[in-house]
Amino acid sequence: MAQAFPYTYYACDCFDSNVVTAAKRASQLLAVAEEDERTFDPQGLRSNYALYPLEHLLYCEDCQQIRCPRCVMEETLNWYCPNCLFEVPSSVVKSDGNRCTRNCFNCPVCISPLIVNVLDNPEAPPGAGDRHILACPYCHWSTLETGIEFEKHTGVYAQIARIANGGKPIPTQKERDKERERRKDHEAKSRETRVLSPPADEPIAATSGSLDPPTRDDLFSNLSAFYKSQLEAQAPSNSLFAAGDVNFSSPSAYTRIMNLYSTTTAKKQKRSKPTPMREAASELEGLSIHDPASDIASIERIKRDGWTATLSPTQKREQINPHVQFEDELRPVPTLLCTRRTKRCRSCRQIVAKPESKITSTRYKIKILALSHIPRISIRALPITSTGLPSTSTQSSPVNYNALRSGVATHFLLTLSNPLFDPIRVTLATSSRTPGRVQSRVTILCPQFDVGKNTDVWDDALSSTVAPERRGSLLNADGQIEAGKVWDKGRNWTTVAIEVVPGFLRSTTGFGAADEEFDEDDDLLEISIFVRLEFEADVTADERGLGDSRGSKGEKERREEAFWTVVGAGRIASM
Fold it and tell me: 173-196 and 216-234 helices cross at what angle (nearest 10)?
């Protein structure tokens, strides 16, 4: 893991599909056999998706468990444009799409916001109105390169939607329908003429061949009209489809579909099978036929203009039409809308994070952080003297976390801070050897200890408690740390010592044995620590229930929480 040493990660329970319930987890994991089977492997393939810093985790108060980004389900609270900060209703998003329909556009070349500029035209008559364009202040791209100009500086989205590249107007839906009917009548007459007098069809064929190739909007309009006509043709024989009803998301369509699959109506009457609809057979019905001449023209243009005239894959993906190829086919990209989302626990559907609905606000109405309910664990190496013994003086040489010596015992100080307002009893457990190809020996010198509650800072100064034990008394006659004792203790934190003997990176079995080939992170020293908390918390009215007579003020209940952590102690130096 590419992070400065030392570090601490917390493991979420969702990494294991066979995780037990919260009520039974603590008691089952205390068993030795169960603990050996469930030892967390920080170098496993799934560990990268289960380990998170404490600041990135949420907490569910009902389930009393850590919640990672995979443990929560998101709900869209509102939609807004990140450029103009305009909140878009959900109904508008469903009808118009997830793009801003005001004046917000991004540059198709460098994706920076475009601004509206007035086009200077000294040759224009005095009474003529101003012409406007969209320009990029960074790469200096403008819609003038594609021939798009508009009249007003407001309502830019609606104006650009009516203008094609080159300045040609885009026909409306009514105009497309009229043109389709005209071409259908023209083809019908041409077929009649072809039957009566075959040689007379040459001018008609030349006229039809001179038409421009249809655009994607034209093909979509033709295909929609074709399917609508197919549904209208089936309406008398099939009651499932009403005449003129193409919108399958309408309430009437939902009602017919539910009636089709309901058991009561299916037994009363027999429905005939719907007549299969035929596919589109011509261009006027929405059939898109590949033209090899277009490919030849594209190749010739690339030979003439070079690769600089083509578009990158990123620019193609940003366009509404992903099949564009050249720069003159670019269009301004409407700004993509953003969302504010509410996060819920997947198990109990409890809200764990909910931002304020106001777009300009960065505050949260509800945000239950794990660092307010889970103790923070930090680790640091204990400096050693020239004799190899641990020392508490500041004159000792610091420890190089990136070059831990193999076979030499190194002591680390593990500090646990309590954010709760109740004292907790902590039990630490770890495997005697770290998993992986390079196995290091780990010993927690004080696996059980108490941590005080999180109170006011002045309470510690004003309290008349006994002074804490000096660190020098924790060392025995040989200068080693005495096991079973706390290294240091404060108001809401406690520090214990851990002894680590790093493993060997080279094989030492036999004379002249060949060195093993290790992977990239085999020299990484990571310690899996299972943390179990016991504390007494106040019973709230929601936890008691309405019909529970319990609930005298000050009543407490015993709670247990358990989770895995991974501590990154450093890297083992090669010998």
Answer: 70
Residue with tokens 């609606």: 158
CB atoms within 10 A of CB 543: 14
The whole-number pLDDT of residue 1 equals: 45
DSSP characters over 366-433: EE-BGGGTS-EEEEEEPPB-TTS-B--STTSBPP-TT-BPTTS-EEEEEEEE--SSS-EEEEEE--SB
**Cα separation, 11 vs 525, whole angstroms:** 17
**Do residues 501 and 412 make contact, with C-beta atoms less than 8 angstroms apart?**
no
Whether residue 281 is contained in a domain is answered as no
3-state secondary structure of 352: strand
Cα of 185 vs its chain's centroid, Å: 53
Total H helices, total E strands in the chain: 13, 22
Q: For residue range 182-195, what is the model confidence (pLDDT) as tens digits? A: 988 888 888 888 77
In a domain, 507, yes or no: yes
Q: What angle, 0 to 180 degrees and rounded to 10, lies between the N-to-C axes of helices 202-209 and 173-196?
A: 160
pLDDT tens digits along 286-304: 888 888 888 899 999 999 9
Tell me how far CA of residue 123 lies from CA of 114, 120, 142, in angstroms: 26, 9, 21
Tens digit of each residue's pLDDT (9 = 90 or more) over 82-117: 999 999 999 999 888 899 998 999 999 998 999 999
**Burial (0-12, 13-18, 19+ Cβ within 10 Å), 69:** middle
Number of domains, the chain:
1
Flag whether 82 is in a domain.
no
Range of the domain at 471: 7-57+371-567
Residue 561 in tokens = 């929480």
489-529 pLDDT, tens digit per residue, is 888 999 999 999 988 886 544 554 445 666 777 788 889 99
397 pLDDT more than 80: no
Reduced to 3 states (helix: H, G, I; strand: E, B; else coil), residue 159 is helix
Which tokens belong to 381?
């190496």
Q: Is the pLDDT of residue 473 over 70?
A: no
pLDDT (tens digit, 9 = 90+) per residue, 223-263?
A: 888 888 888 877 655 554 454 455 555 555 656 666 666 65
Q: d(Cα 71, Cα 56) in Å, to the nearest integer?
A: 12
Going from the C-alpha of 435 to that of each of 86, 523, 562, the distances in angstroms are 53, 12, 21
In a domain, 253, yes or no: no
Residue 568 three-state SS: strand
